[in-house]
C-alpha cells in the first residue's frame, strides 16, 4: 500500500513558529525513524518490495521544540528599562497665577540686567569711588583747617615764657597780651617780634604754638662779658657791645674791658672773643682786658700777673695752655705768662 504524501508533516502554523531550526530538527529526527523502519526484525525474513505491515502512524513533533529567543532572554533589571513616570499635568493657569509668573519674570529680568551693567561698568565705578574718596579726604582736611583757624576753641588764652632770668617774665607776658583771644594759626608774629625787640636783654627767642590755646615763648638772654668804664660809672655789656646793665660801681665777677676805640672797634671784638674762650675758673680771676688792636690782647689777673695773649686766633688752644701753666706755676710765682705762641709758651 502506498504511503500518502505529507501525512507526517507538522501543521503549517507550527512549522512557521519553529522556524528553520525546527525544520532541521525534524529532518534529524526523521532519519533515525526511517532507519528504524527499514531495520530487519531478528529471526524474520526480509521481504523485498513494499511490506503490508509498514508503520503508517504519523510522527508527532513537539509543538515548540526550540523556545523563542525572547523567552530565553533574562529580564532587564536596569532602572532605564522601567517605564518613565508620567509628569502630572499642570492645573489650569488662572489669571492671578499668570500675573504672578509675569511679575517674577520681570524681577528676574531686571536682576539679570543689573548684574550685566555691574559687570561691564566695574572700571568706571572703581574710578568714581577713588575720586569720591579723594574728594572726601580733601574736604575733611579743609574743614579741619577752617575749624582750627577760625574756631574760638583754638583762641589764645595762655602765654608761657621760658628762659627769662634778667628780664621779668611778667613784663614779656604784658607786652604780648594784645594777642590774647586770637586763634593760634592767626597770631601776628610780626607784632610779637616788634614787642620783644624792645627788650635789650633778649638776644633771641623762639615761639611754639601748643594747641589748643597756649603760646610758648623761649627766651635766650644776652650773656655779659665785661664792663666798660664810662663817665657815669660802668656799663655791663655782652659780646656785641649791647649794654645789659649800668651802674656807678663795677659789677662783681666781671673784668674791665679797656677798648680805646669803643665797642664797635676790632679791639673790643677781639677782647670779647678772648673772654668768651676762657674757662670759668680763669675768668673769675680776671681783672682787666686791654686790646688796642686785634693782635695785642693783654690780660691782667687778680694779683698782678700779666698774660700776653696776642691775637684772638687759636683762643681755645691758648686757654688750655694757660690753664696748664697756672697749675704748674700758680699765680704769684711768676709775673707773666706768654701764650701768644701756644706751641712754645714762655714764663717770665
* Average pLDDT figure: 78
Q: Give the helix level as a range of percent.
A: 25-40%
CATH architectural type of the domain at 224-347: 3-Layer(aba) Sandwich
Highest-level CATH class of the domain at 224-347: Alpha Beta
Number of helices: 9
Shape verdict: elongated
Q: How much of the sequence is in beta strands?
A: 15-25%
Radius of gyration: 68 Å
Low-pLDDT segments:
13-54, 64-82
Number of strands: 12
Tell me the major beta sheet: 9 strands, mixed
List the helices and strands and how they pair.
Layout: H1 12-38, H2 69-72, H3 95-120, H4 122-150, E1 158-162, H5 169-175, H6 189-196, E2 202-210, E3 214-221, E4 224-229, E5 234-238, E6 243-247, E7 256-258, H7 266-277, H8 280-283, E8 286-291, E9 297-301, E10 306-310, H9 315-328, E11 336-338, E12 346-347
Structure description:
The protein is α/β, with parallel strands linked by helices and 348 residues long. Among the domains are: 46 residues; 67 residues, membrane protein fhac (Ubiquitin-like (UB roll)); 124 residues, 3-Layer(aba) Sandwich (Rossmann fold). The protein contains nine helices and twelve strands. Strands 6-5-4-7-8-9-10-11-12 form a nine-stranded mixed beta sheet, covered by helices on one side. It has a three-stranded mixed beta sheet with strand order 1-3-2, with helices on one face. Strand 8 and strand 9 form a beta hairpin. The longest helix has 29 residues. The chain is elongated, with a radius of gyration of 68 Å. About 18% of the residues have low confidence.
